[in-house]
Amino acid sequence: MKIVVDGMGGDNSPCEIVKGCIDFLTESKKEVHIYITGPQKKIEEELEKYQNNNNITIVDASEVISCNEPPAMAIRKKKDSSMVKALRMVRDGEADAIISAGSTGALLTGATLIIGRIKGIKRAALAPLMPGEKGPFMLIDCGANVDCKPENLVQFALMGKAYFESVMNISDPKVGLVNIGSEEEKGNELTKESYKLLKEENINFYGNIEPRDMVSGDVQVIVADGFVGNTILKAIEGVSSLIFGRLKEGIYSSFKTKIGGALLKPVFSQFKKDFDYREYGGTPFLGVKGVCIKAHGSSDAKAIKNAIKQSVLFYDKKVIDKIKTEFEK
Amino acid sequence: MKIVVDGMGGDNSPCEIVKGCIDFLTESKKEVHIYITGPQKKIEEELEKYQNNNNITIVDASEVISCNEPPAMAIRKKKDSSMVKALRMVRDGEADAIISAGSTGALLTGATLIIGRIKGIKRAALAPLMPGEKGPFMLIDCGANVDCKPENLVQFALMGKAYFESVMNISDPKVGLVNIGSEEEKGNELTKESYKLLKEENINFYGNIEPRDMVSGDVQVIVADGFVGNTILKAIEGVSSLIFGRLKEGIYSSFKTKIGGALLKPVFSQFKKDFDYREYGGTPFLGVKGVCIKAHGSSDAKAIKNAIKQSVLFYDKKVIDKIKTEFEK
């Protein structure tokens, strides 16, 4: 398998990106060749720090797309950027998957414009996996699309189902619709209309789900308009970091509490594991004709390594073929 | 001041409701008379448990509105319900404020239909106060309205400002717009249009705010469509209860962790205080011609006591007059 990694995406590029690639190759039993896009010299300097760098090829790219640029314009103008070059490799069949920790907007726009959507898909969607009590769940869409139509939400449901069945080995996952009440007639125009359509689909439709019940993990695929999904995601991020920050502060506040913190270390380690975005790798971008993973902007080597792992699963489990088949029906 | 409390609202009615009223009166230095609506005998039985019950009058009401009834129908049909009777007392000037832990939908519909909106207000809004790092913030609207128009969001901003200035003594609070990015051009049709209008208003407009930054408390009044606000609120509820639940589980998992938990007790107590919805009382319903507080459905006596306290502030600080003045401009 050939994977291209955007060497200049994210806050910790290129150093953590390159380390993540090296760490992946060191652990991986699968034959994988990694291409890293970015300024030849800069990436080379990073690569030279490691022994095990045989299966890596640098693809020279002089430009970088920043998070502050208007996405569509950046993709069109910066043809020699690490991101555009990586996207083109997937389009041209030179790579089977792309991972980038760069600008979300640019990656989504670029993947849609350069790689292209799967036939029949009206809108591709960002679909992060999140930790639930009984197992992970997927919230789709989380920000690729705003002002969605009911048919978009139905497509998200089908794509999420295909991903869950292939990658997570859960057949016929429960599909829920984010809403502000559980009854069918609850919600806004979009959810009321979407409910009707989802009920008719060949899916295991759970009905409406309120965000407070999402974390139970009872429902695996949760569909929402991208604006709503994104605000939920960011609310969860904000409140978790507030709670963990306060907890840390409290533990460091006195000798007694420090001892308490030390005794609770195994609990906190488990917590960290359960709530660490890095464990989940990156966020699949579903609906385009290639394996595309958005890694978190603050990804370190571990997050990049896991994002690459995830792209391998995404590829090996033939998620794209599955979505294609679903939409040919 | 005269306050009417819906004696049959919420999961713990009437026992915790009555206790909350008693506790409030015991602590309060202000002269307040409380009316409790509900079946005469049932409320009487509860009241008899306490000594200090002189300033309480029972208003007999034979019916109860449940959370599963369609709100508008329930309000129209159940004229002898504890909620409708309480709302009518506010309408008729027999009470200055109403507190209910009953069905949110019924209370909002009832307050709008029976008490009525302030002149100029297109939609009244639910505006909970939430704990932020630097102080509380208000998220308005949190579920009273879906499919809002930009002008509704502007009205929410003005009402939130009036509340914050009067009750929290913060002049010219910062007003933010919930969005999925900080730049002006980000978001959906509603936020883009609302941004333009909010920029022109006579408010301290902060711009867009992403939900992960809400918890900082930097911005005091945060406006959103009620669907979005409600999902954010419920996501926060869900993830906090998941984290605290896991923490408790972890602490009880071994002797060592139990000791650790005991040493961290002061930290957890502070936590509980900071994140306890009961400390904040209830949620003001802004835009109607009376003081209306929605208490949490699972309110205990402490939550009810604090909700009554909040209604006193709401009344004493003349929030409604302030909103009226704002909308006469």
Q: Mind explaining what this structure looks like?
A:
The structure is a homodimer of 329-residue chains. The mean pLDDT of chain A is 94. In chain A, helix 4 packs parallel to helix 5 and helix 6 (150-167) packs across helix 13. In chain A, the strands form two sheets. In chain A, strands 3-2-1-4-12-11-5 form a seven-stranded mixed beta sheet, sandwiched between helices. Chain A has 329 residues and is α/β, with parallel strands linked by helices. The first copy, chain A, starts with a strand and ends with a helix. Helix content of chain A is 47%, strand content 15%. Chain A has two domains: 2-121 and 287-320, Isopropylmalate Dehydrogenase, CATH 3.40.718; 129-274, Isopropylmalate Dehydrogenase (3-Layer(aba) Sandwich). The longest helix of chain A has 26 residues, at 226-251. Chains A, B: It comes from Oceanirhabdus seepicola. Chains A, B: GO terms for molecular function: phosphate:acyl-[acyl carrier protein] acyltransferase activity. Chains A, B: This is Phosphate acyltransferase. Chains A, B: Its EC number is 2.3.1.274. Chains A, B: It is found in: Cytoplasm.
